[in-house]
C-alpha cells in the first residue's frame, strides 16, 4: 500500500535579484518531484548539496507548503505538522538538563500522551535502541552515537507512522555510524515503520534503502530511483563486498557524478 505520495511537487522561493537592485525573483528549489513510498518501506534520498533535500523534508513535515503539487499520506494531503510523522536530525537536539529518559518523556508530553504512559514507553524505546542501562544519564554523559540513539528513541516513542531522518549519522565517526546503520535496520524490521532517510553517503543510501532516490542538482528533480536487490543485510556481515551491493553503489555513484563529468568534458 502507498504510504507517502509526492505528486509533482514544486517549491519556489522569492530571493533578491542580483541584477536589479531592490527587486525579487523566483528561485526554484525543487521541481516536479513525483514518487511514492510504500507502507513499511525504507527509502533513502541522495543528491548533490543544495539540490533541495531539506526543502523536501520541510514540505513532508508540513513546515512549508508546495508552490505546486501536493504530498499525500494515506491519501490525505499534508496541510501542517502532525503526529503521524517524526523526524531525527543530524544534531541530536536533546535537552542537556534532562536525562535520556527525561528527553523522551518530554517528547511524549509535548505530543499529549498521558503521563501514566511516559515511563513505560520511554523505557521500552530506550531498550529498543540498546540504552536501557543509560536511562538516567544526561546527554553530556553519553557518546555521540548514544545521543543519536536517544534522539531516535524519542522520535519512535510517540509512534509515528512515518519516520523522517535528515542525515542522522553524518556527525558520527565511521565505526559508530556503521553500528547505528545496522541498528536502524534492526529497529525498522521490528517496528515496520515507513522510513525516509536523507544522506550524503552513497554507501549508507545503498546499505539502508530498499530503493534509493537520486536527485539532480538545482532545481532538484528525481533523476532515477534505483532498486536495491539485497534482502539479507543483517545476516551478511560483509554485505558491502557483495557484487550486487558494489554494482548498486556504482550505479548511484555514476548517477550522482554524471553531471560533473559532462561539465568536465566541455
Ligand atoms: N527559505 C529559503 N529562501 C530562499 N532560498 C532557499 C530557502 N530555503 C532553501 N533555499 C534554497 O533552495 C536550495 C535548496 O536548499 P536545501 O537546503 O533544501 O538543499 P539541500 O539539498 O538540503 O542542501 P545540503 O545538502 O547542502 O544540506 C538552495 O539553493 C537554497 O539556497
UniProtKB/TrEMBL annotation:
Keyword ATP-binding: yes
Keywords attached to this entry: ATP-binding, Nucleotide-binding, Transport
GO molecular function: ATP binding; ATP hydrolysis activity
Domain of life: Bacteria
Gene3D superfamilies assigned: P-loop containing nucleotide triphosphate hydrolases
CDD domains, per the entry: ABC_NrtD_SsuB_transporters (cd03293)
All residue ranges annotated as the ABC transporter domain in the record: 4-242
Database matches in InterPro entries: AAA+_ATPase, ABC_transporter-like_ATP-bd, ABC_transporter-like_CS, ABC_transporter_ATP-bind, P-loop_NTPase
SUPFAM superfamilies on file: P-loop containing nucleoside triphosphate hydrolases
Protein name: ABC transporter ATP-binding protein
